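Consider this:
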Amino acid sequence: MDFSIREEWLAAHDEEVIEPERAIVDPHHHFFVETDLFPHYRLADLWADTATHRVERTVFAQCGECYRKDGPEALRPVGETEWIDGIAREAEARPDATQIAGIVATADLRLGAGVREVLEAHRVASPLFRGIRQAVCWDDSGVVQNAEGARDAHSYREPAFREGFAVLAEMGLSYDAYHYHPQNADLADLARAFPQATIVLDHLGTPLGVGPYEGKRDQVFAEWKQSMNELASCPNVHVKLGGLAMPWNGFGFEVGARPPSSDQLLALQGRYYEHAIERFGAERCMFESNFPVDKLSLSYEVLWNFFKKLAAGCSEEEKEALFRGTATRVYRL
């Protein structure tokens, strides 16, 4: 699969920015400088994208970059936090540009009680550290990538994972949940077991659309909808609205002759977002870019126009929550 970003292709569709005055917090983006999987994406690239809308602050989400090269294996991910803290300090030299206001790092919760040392090291590494994401994506089809270290689809139920999760919750840190939609039920079980924990569901639970899920969009939507209803019954679960332009979502935007418009996104994906907002409420939802991963399929300008069209019927209070309020509260920005 080609994960290159085609800037000329993205530029083939241009839109006038809707509500350019609306202040935004983007709670989910990455930087890449080492990986061979995704094109490199640095602060200048983020600034070029966020300048299309009024994005004041962002939250960096872990992506396995710039780990420490030596020392204890469990502590090596702290290098990523140290690296991002440096980028955030660099950004402060331009207060008129988008600022990095929070860091979601990673740690292996299967360390159990031993994960405390790692979490404390992240805190020392940056005052921007807010919580972790440990990807547990798993699908038996073998078509989509399974998370490193995951043994099956039920990582959330492993005793060691839950022992580590208890430490995370006790320390008042948030947990970003990245998995595939059939795993939503396990997250609901985890959320009920730890009602004091702040949980953020990434990418609307990542409904799959490739492999055995290809051509079954309505069936997948029905199953996803039911599991999202279950998650919505857990008051400690919040949702990031975005991330549905990844190749494994199966919409095929990345191979289209032209990039999608915000109206096309609304027609094809609007029901996912509308259902999530209806069930969780704006106060538990936040729009996210997931850039540069979603940039494989669409531009930042188009994505946030799509979000603004989605929210057109919301009250100003709801819009404030969706575009920056929920993210600001949940990540304590």
In short: The chain has one domain: 22-330.
